[in-house]
Design goal:
271 residues, alpha/beta, 6-stranded mixed beta sheet, 6 helices, 12 strands, binds fe (ii) ion
């Protein structure tokens, strides 16, 4: 009988509310779903929502995260750069230009099985100087598929089209492709024809009544008055939301056999 592994993936953690939600819910989700590993995107976990630091990675690890993925905000905190180089439990998108700090994939042991997590960034609507994520993942897979067939991709990007295309591009070659970055969960979780589970966006973890996890009042001028940016402050009032998926993977083939969305709204957290 083929053995199965279950993984929980959680989307962008935003500020103190996101960390608090993860601290409360990660252990419960692990138990509820009998999950063997949790992977979380931490790119907005600083108190101001901009990036993360080594202490936050430690906090997420203590609550059960095996690997912390990131995105465009990974460069916001310069004091993280040394940790990005030194640590194996935090990764950044692979398709930034050569010479940037950090690693773009992680290899972890889960119940005696080697599991790879890749981080990529979309190019559509992105202002960053990025290489092609499709060609980048192609070349990473030529190497990683010699190591394991249990491989997951956090594809950090804006456009649903590009994320959907990546999901189909990698169908049958990785176990799962899950989008991050929009902080809004999509309801299109699916098993693709060749066994790669997919969701366009895992969603964010932070204040529910917010824009991207930020206070509405600070974000409004951006839309109402064509001001470049209002004062962006992380919203810390409840209720809070935590979003992601739980997936089940056949260890022998690396194929997903189930994917379910997770969305928890909680009024009880005091940040
Ligand atoms: Fe984000
Ligand atoms: Fe982002």
């Amino acid at each position: 009988m083929a053995s199965l592994l279950r993984f929980v993936f959680i989307g962008d953690i935003i500020g103190a509310p996101g960390i608090a939600m993860f601290q409360k819910w990660a252990p419960r989700l692990r138990e509820r779903y009998h999950a063997q590993a949790i992977i979380v995107n931490g790119e907005n976990a600083m108190k101001n929502g901009m990036g993360l630091n080594a202490k936050i990675i430690d906090l997420l690890r203590e609550s059960g995260a095996a690997v912390v993925t990131t995105g465009n905000h990974v460069w916001d905190q310069k004091d993280l750069y040394a940790a990005l180089n030194e640590r194996d439990d935090v990764i950044r998108p692979a398709n930034y230009p050569p010479g940037m700090p950090g690693k773009s994939y992680a290899l972890i042991q889960v119940q005696g099985q080697l599991v790879a997590i890749i981080n990529l960034h979309g190019r559509v609507y992105s202002k960053d100087n990025l290489d092609c994520p499709f060609r980048t993942v192609d070349s990473l897979l030529t190497f990683l598929r010699t190591k394991t067939n249990i491989i997951f991709v956090d594809f950090h990007g804006d456009a649903t089209s590009e994320k959907r295309a990546m999901g189909m591009f990698l169908d049958g070659r990785v176990s799962g492709v899950y989008g991050t970055h929009t902080h809004i969960q999509t309801a299109d979780e699916m098993l693709q024809p060749k066994g790669t589970s997919y969701v366009t966006d895992l969603g964010g973890c932070g204040a529910l009544n917010s824009v991207l996890g930020m206070q509405f009042d600070g974000m409004l001028p951006l839309f109402l008055q064509h001001r470049k940016m209002g004062k962006m402050v992380v919203e810390e009032q409840p209720p809070f939301v935590l979003s992601g998926v739980v997936v089940e993977v056949e260890t022998q083939t690396g194929k997903s056999v189930n994917i379910e969305r997770i969305r928890i709204v909680d009024n009880e957290i005091h940040v």
